[in-house]
Amino acid sequence: MKTVRALERGLDVLLQVQARRAASLHEMHVALGLPKATLLRMLQTLGQKGLIWQRLADGAYLPHVDARARSQALTLEHVAEVASPWLKALSTRVSWPSVLAMPRLDHMEIVETNSPLFRLDSATLGPVGVKLSYIHTATGRAYLAACREEEREAIITRLRPRNPQEGSEADLRAILAETRSRGYAAREPLHPWPDRSRQLVLRDGRRSMAVPILLDGAPVASINITWPAKRGTDDAVMLRHLGALKHTAREIAMAIERAALAAEGRAPSGAIMAQFAAGTAKSVSPGENS
């Protein structure tokens, strides 16, 4: 009996993506010998069927995170996959790029970015895997300020230098308290601890704001907007785009929640939906953020 050649080729593409865990169009073209136009149609079909997804940060194709994996833990790949469409949507409403980062022991790690959607050298962020400081980046501060006390104390203990300047730890705690109070993080004020990213933040000429992505009141990631300092003051950019950034963070949180509950065969609780509705009602509408 003859096999269905088109189906075989589609499955070959899927198996390549699964085996590599992340594959570029060119890599699959070389591996399978198929024209890139044909591969693109197959990849689009596989994406529409929920079997793969395309990362914004580098255009790589990744296997869909299955329900079993999602029910076990919030993996890096899961959060990146769920957040990716929202980062793309944010890029149509905000003039500057964003990264999504998740916590590691002593740093935050970029897991997705919409930077490639912007054609400005000054807008380049990432790539995926870059390590960000908890202390010297808005992305890190947003997470550190929002996390629960036990986690925050553990992170600060890991970051504390051997001989910290007098009063420097109190200054850090004051920065985090202010961040929690105003609802978003910024790079300023500078802090003396020699954590990673400090020198880069001092010389790259950029500004940034970030907010946490919260599930059950605790952060799982944070998302930012970054722009060149010469292209806009903090107040002007925040007035224009902070609403969109917070709205996107809520949307990502709800998408993660829905995916986790769907894996368990449950629907979002009334409390969760009410909380989201209340937050959305307070946010600026999409048209007002762009």
What layout of secondary structure does this protein have?
Elements (H helix, E strand, L loop, with lengths): L4 H16 L4 H8 L3 H13 L3 E3 L6 E3 L3 H6 L3 H16 L7 E5 L4 E6 L17 E2 L5 H9 L2 H11 L8 H15 L2 E2 L11 H6 L2 E10 L2 E11 L5 H30 L6 H13 L3 H4 L1
Antiparallel strand pairs: 1-2, 3-4, 3-8, 4-5, 6-7, 7-8
Helix pairs in contact: 5-10, 6-8
Could you characterize what this model shows?
- The chain has 290 residues and is α+β, with helices and mostly antiparallel strands.
- Helix content is 51%, strand content 14%.
- The protein contains twelve helices and eight strands.
- The strands form two sheets. A six-stranded antiparallel beta sheet has the order 5-4-3-8-7-6.
- The relative contact order is 0.11.
- The C terminus is likely disordered.
Arithmetic mean pLDDT: 84
The helix content is 40-55%
Main beta sheet, described? 6 strands, antiparallel
Count of DSSP strands: 8
Task: Tell the overall outline.
Answer: elongated
Order of helices and strands: HHHEEHHEEEHHHEHEEHHH
Kindly provide the radius of gyration, computed on alpha-carbon positions and rounded to a whole number of angstroms: 21 Å
